[in-house]
Amino acid sequence: MDDSKNIEGLFKRYLDNQCSPDEIRLLLQHFNAGENEDLLRSLMREQSNLIQDAPLISDETSKPLLDAAFKKIQNAIAVDNKIRQINVHPFYRNSWFRACAAATIILIVSTTAYYFLHKNNETVFALKQTPMHQAKEIPPGTNNAVLTLDNGTAIMLDSAANGTLAQQGNTDVQKINGQIAYRKTDMEMNTKPVYNTITTANGNQYQLILSDGSKVWLNAASSIRFPASFTGKERKVAITGEAYFEVAHDASKPFKVDFSDKAGGTGEIEVLGTHFDVNAYDDESASKTTLLEGSVKIKTANQVQMLTPGQQAAITSNTITLKKDVDVSQVVAWKDGFFVFNNTDIQTIMRQVARWYDIDVIFEGKIPSDGFTGKISRNVPLSDFLKVLQLNNVHVRTEGRSVTIST
Is residue 126 part of a domain? Predict the structure, then answer.
């Protein structure tokens, strides 16, 4: 099959909603080439003549419409290319039909042709376009946190220089290339534990290496309280918000994480050596622990549940609900610098966005029930993120650090 026939077939399949996202993009790119304009015009005329009761129109009469449609396609491809440059992977609403941000453009070709033909063959054509509300340029979150020492001294970590920041008991607190590490010294062990806390605000994240070598990533609006040096028969920390752990193996000292759920119930995670994520934000419906490697034991006042890799335990009012075959890459995408959604509702999406960009989100009218699927870099400014939502028919209005989502 020659190239023109193949494109003609794709065009017809698109109008029947049968094209894949890659085929839609191929179609748009083909029509972006100047030498293919005649083919597009021909396909448009053919489509318009298929409309019931529509009279044939001449090239002269249809030219304003075709010019507008072709320009629209070129603009759509420009938008699609820009989105690709800001690390947006296929992001769509509810079904594959929205996978390409510019996918609806070709449909405009046929619907506007119908409108044109039913206006008594008027030669004046106005292509209406809904304006996109531009957000104030709010940058993405940064690598920053506050370290609170045992004596109450607070240290802003983004402005602190590399090197030793403090000595806590028999441990040096060091800043090394944007993370905090606790290094034991040769000093005699204190009998009383010395506790520190690292806290991230909205729009911040941070990394930490505990004195046993365990690594912790803190998401925005989170905290971890921990001893500068672990003593006794266990290693215990307490968190709020979200944290990802890579725990150093020590069979003689189980590692434990305390957290609380939305209803005020408490939970404890016990591990020997493993990788897992704990999401315990107060504004989420449940506290969730997701296991990537190893095994963990989840305890509440009412239940005990063992997890194996790929499982997630959700805790609500001290009740554990186990979910199997979880997409762990989606759960920990934040640690790797991405938002990843899989049929995720707009409220859940905007809670993540609010924490990362330090904004307030308001919903007006009926909240859309559609799920969204896609992957977007956390390193883009807020306005770029909102553009992706707008291209998926989400109505967005911004004022300062307030974003309103409406229907």
Answer: no
Query: For 218-243, how does the pLDDT look when each residue is reduced to its tens digit (9 = 90+)?
Result: 999 999 999 999 988 999 999 999 99
Element (H, E) at 174: strand 171-176
Is the domain of 85 the same as that of 183?
no
How far apart are alpha carbons 339 and 317 in whole angstroms? 28
Q: How far is CA 111 from the centre of its chain?
A: 33
Where is the domain boundary, 76, 101, 117? 117
Asked if residue 138 is part of any domain, the answer here is: no
Residues 288 and 402 in one domain: no
Alpha-carbon distance of 222 to 18, in angstroms, equals: 45
Residue 253's CATH number: 2.60.120.1440
* Residue at 292: amino acid letter: L
Say yes or no: 17 and 152 in one domain.
no
How far apart, in Å, are the Cα atoms of 36 and each of 97, 127, 280? 24, 22, 54
Residue 43 is encoded by which pair of tokens? 């396909």
Mean pLDDT (the chain) is 79
Q: What is the pLDDT of residue 88?
A: 63
Q: What pLDDT digit, counting tens, does each position of 180-217 carry?
A: 999 988 776 656 889 999 999 999 999 999 999 999 99
Domain CATH for 382:
3.55.50.30
pTM here is: 0.72
Q: How far apart are CA 392 and CA 387, in angstroms?
A: 9
Query: How far is Cα 328 from Cα 315, in angstroms, rounded to an integer?
Result: 18
Question: Which residue range(s) make up the domain with 219?
Answer: 143-331
Distance of CA 58 to the CA centre of its chain: 48
Instruction: Kindly write down the DSSP assignment for every residue of 109-161, as one continuous string.
Output: HHHHHHHHHTTTT-S------PPPPPPP--PPPEE--EEE-TTS-EEETTTSP
Token pair for residue 272?
A: 């020997």
Q: Which of 80-94, 158-172, 243-257, 362-376 has the lowest mean pLDDT?
A: 80-94
Bridge partners of 245, per DSSP, are 216, 276
Name the DSSP class of 192.
Answer: S
Instruction: Indicate whether 288 and 239 sit together in one domain.
Output: yes
Residues 238 and 311 in one domain: yes
Q: Are 208 and 292 within one domain?
A: yes
